[in-house]
């Protein structure tokens, strides 16, 4: 099965803040098959589900803040079940010590078990700081080692993996079978390592997608944390580049 391509709506947050549904309509017209949420714009789940169906979009995942996972997990589960989303991702957490990773893993195991019992899947999304080492191990590897693969999956952000000094292709392969989602991002040349439209930077996008397909990844999710042009133009450029590469037909 060919990998499906979605966009992380955090990229177009200024647009969704103005017109959430209108932005979804524009994303659909560009050729994206799905969206990964970073909030729902106060739209009721029933209306969101109807909108996704009308536009032919799938819910590829949803980033949910750690405090909401801790305090409102039942509501998070109910909303995502109604909109047809399987994957709930913790997008960020603060880590300073090895024990911080172990304690986070304990929480994710409990929350992940509850998600699985409801038919959903919990995961963790990395940045670059999780590649600090403790006793010779990356913090991110400690987190995944201490979590039950049945309860907690990996969502690997390929830009942050590379920025952390790791080969994203090799790292995807390391977590083959446990990483159904990746973030597909690109990096400008130069010391600043600024974000770029997918295909406009130095990342080996075709190699990353090939490794993802071989490793059981279901969704490649385009994200650009900051754009130097309008965010809608940026995600359109990313999509056109993916079409030129043959990744999107």
Tags for this model:
single chain; 249 residues; alpha/beta; TIM Barrel; two-stranded antiparallel sheet
Task: Indicate the topology.
Blueprint: E1 4-8, H1 13-18, H2 20-30, E2 34-37, H3 45-55, E3 58-63, H4 66-71, H5 73-83, E4 87-90, H6 98-117, E5 121-125, E6 133-134, E7 137-138, H7 139-146, E8 152-157, H8 158-163, H9 168-174, E9 181-184, E10 186-187, E11 195-196, H10 205-214, E12 219-222, H11 231-245
Parallel strand pairs: 1-2, 1-12, 2-3, 3-4, 4-5, 5-8, 8-9, 9-12
Antiparallel strand pairs: 6-7, 10-11
Describe the structure.
The chain is of the alpha/beta class and 249 residues long. The protein has one domain (4-245): TIM Barrel (Alpha-Beta Barrel). Helices cover 45% and strands 18% of the residues. The chain has helices at 13-18, 20-30, 45-55, 66-71, 73-83, 98-117, 139-146, 158-163, 168-174, 205-214, 231-245; strands at residues 4-8, 34-37, 58-63, 87-90, 121-125, 133-134, 137-138, 152-157, 181-184, 186-187, 195-196, 219-222. A hairpin with a 7-residue loop joins strand 10 (186-187) and strand 11 (195-196).
Q: Kindly report the average pLDDT value.
A: 98
Number of domains: 1
CATH class: Alpha Beta
What is the gyration radius calculated from CA atoms?
Answer: 17 Å
User: What is the H-and-E element order?
Assistant: EHHEHEHHEHEEEHEHHEEEHEH
What is the CATH topology? TIM Barrel
The N- to C-terminal Cα distance equals 13 Å
Biggest sheet architecture = 8 strands, parallel, barrel
User: Would you report the number of β strands?
Assistant: 12
Estimated helix fraction: 40-55%
The number of helical runs is 11
